[in-house]
Every structure is written in structure tokens, then in C-alpha cells.
Amino acid sequence: MAFFEKLLTSTDVDKRLSVPTRCLPYFEGLIEGSHAVDLKVEDEKGQLMTFCCTTRKKGYKKPVFTRGWSEYVRRKKLKVGDKIIFRQSEDGGSVYKIEAQRRIPILGRQVWCNVSDA
What we know:
mainly beta, At1g16640 B3 domain, 3 helices, 8 strands, 41% strand, DNA binding
């Protein structure tokens, strides 16, 4: 089950990934009172990385992926309009899964395909 799917914006690509607030309960450290937690994330090729998920200390607790996210964007050469799918691993463990997709034309139709490492 996907926690969220998101079409990337310029802020997502250039700075940090804004995560839907409804996903906060999935990030254990954030619901235990901390405003930052490291998440182990695995891409579709099995490469493991760490994203730091942070929220504001006061007010609206909008989560964002900061440290580690920009490296992933560069490696995949992600662009505005690409899509990411973020989910928990199939075994329900502490490693999350991420896929990056891009629309490409095939036989006159636009279809989503996984983005390979550059």
C-alpha cells in the first residue's frame, strides 16, 4: 500500500520533498515527540539510502524530506512533473520503499515508467 504518490514540484526537485501531512502517523519518531527522524529507504533496485524527515517545532507540522533527498533527485535526474511513490516495505519493517516514475509517449499514449539511475 502506498503512503503517498506525488507529482514533483520545483520545490520538491530543487530543495526538499513536501510530504502530505496525513502521512505523519507512518513516521514513528515524529509521532513520539521528535521533530526529525531518519528513514531508511530502498529504491526499486534495492539501493539503500537515508532521508531525514523533519517537521516544524511549532505550529503546523508539515513533514518534509531534507537530508538525503537531493542526492536521490540528482541520481535519478528527476524533473518537475515526475512522480514518486512512497510506501512501507512488504514485510511491514522499518525500511520504506520509493519508486520514481516519468511519463513517456508509447504508441501515441502517455504511460508511467520507472526512472533508472543516471
